[in-house]
Amino acid sequence: MQIFLDTANIEEIKEIASIGILDGVTTNPSLIAKENRDFKATIKEICDIVKGPVSAEVIATDFEGMIKEAQELASISEYVVVKIPFTYEGLKATSYLFKKNIPVNMTLIFSPNQAVLACKAGARYISPFVGRLDDIGHEGIELARQCQDIIDTYGYDTEVIAASIRHTEHVLKVLEYGIDIATLPHKVVLQMMKHPLTDIGIEKFLSDWKKFNK
Ligand code: G3P
After folding, report:
1. What is this structure's pTM?
2. 168-185 b/e with 16+ CB inside 10 Å = b?
3. 146-176, pLDDT tens digit by residue?
4. CATH architecture of 2-212
């Protein structure tokens, strides 16, 4: 499983990258807005830190606007992956960008039907939103599993990014289902490291060592 960080916060990205476990970053307009900094400069800085795929989302909703923004975003760094929302226009734009060798992450995927169309349009990544489906009473992780099955069955050259991940239970399911990538909030990465028995074990080793070294 590849670990992406779902944030536009430079400090969070630097911290997780410094541990040596970071494969990529995803951002979206809400995450960018939260940082209140220049969009393109932020994406450039993230790319320079991560040196791996960094998703940056278009704001336009029409084909021409999406293409224009996508080309501008792609010129920021070789690591930029253009994030395009799943719409009729977005699908056309993805198809066009595929032919221009600009990698696309199709986002806001909420059904297997959308997923297969995104794969056929040439999306490099698809992002099923797990937590937001949970929010409305569905089993969101099942969608991510279905997306992975579609790709494995038909051999599309697309990877699944399980997105809108809210807790470590989601990560366990991503692992169980063999999903390619999970994009995680910073706090979920930290939660993955925690186990009370590890803390208790360290305490015991250290107290035994102190007794022995009196
Ligand atoms: O990658 C998509 C993600 O940022 C959405 O997460 O928590 O806003 O549903 P959330």
Report:
1. 0.96
2. eebbebbeebebbbbbbb
3. 999 999 999 999 999 999 999 999 999 999 9
4. Alpha-Beta Barrel (3.20)
